[in-house]
Write a structure and sequence with these properties.
127 residues; alpha+beta; HIT family, subunit A; 5-stranded antiparallel sheet; 3 helices; 31% helix
């Protein structure tokens, strides 16, 4: 199987603004965010559908999703929308999207400025 863009990010072949990583999971900012802080949480193992993950990788992924969603809400002061879409990249990933009262679900994502992503990553990074 050819490496997905997410596997290339995990391997360091493609740059990304990472906010979390451990031996099972990596989280980084989406370059086409719905809102500032839009984060993708991915398992290191390249598996297309989340329900095809091993039980261990599934638990690890959703433990990080839970931890990051709570952290993002604390830092940004907004609720965190959790989405699994599964159509754009054949590598399981969970979207964490900050949203407040002015959230516009019909808004088209636009490419984020690298400096803005770097500043947001600094705010959201977990040790």
């Amino acid at each position: 199987m050819e490496d997905s863009i997410f596997t290339k990010i995990i391997k360091g072949e493609v740059p990304a603004h990472k906010i979390y990583e451990d031996d099972k999971v990596v989280a980084f900012l989406d370059i086409m965010p719905e809102t500032p802080g839009h984060t993708l949480v991915v398992p290191r193992s390249q598996v297309d559908k989340f329900y095809e993950l091993s039980d261990e990788d599934y638990r690890a992924l959703f433990e990080v999703v839970k931890k990051l969603a709570a952290h993002m809400e604390q830092v940004l002061g907004e609720r965190t929308l959790v989405k699994i879409i599964g159509t754009d990249v054949p590598h399981t990933h969970v979207h964490l999207i900050p949203f407040g009262p002015n959230y516009d679900k019909s808004r088209e994502p636009i490419r984020a400025d690298d400096a803005e992503l770097a500043a947001m990553a600094e705010r959201l990074r977990l040790a």
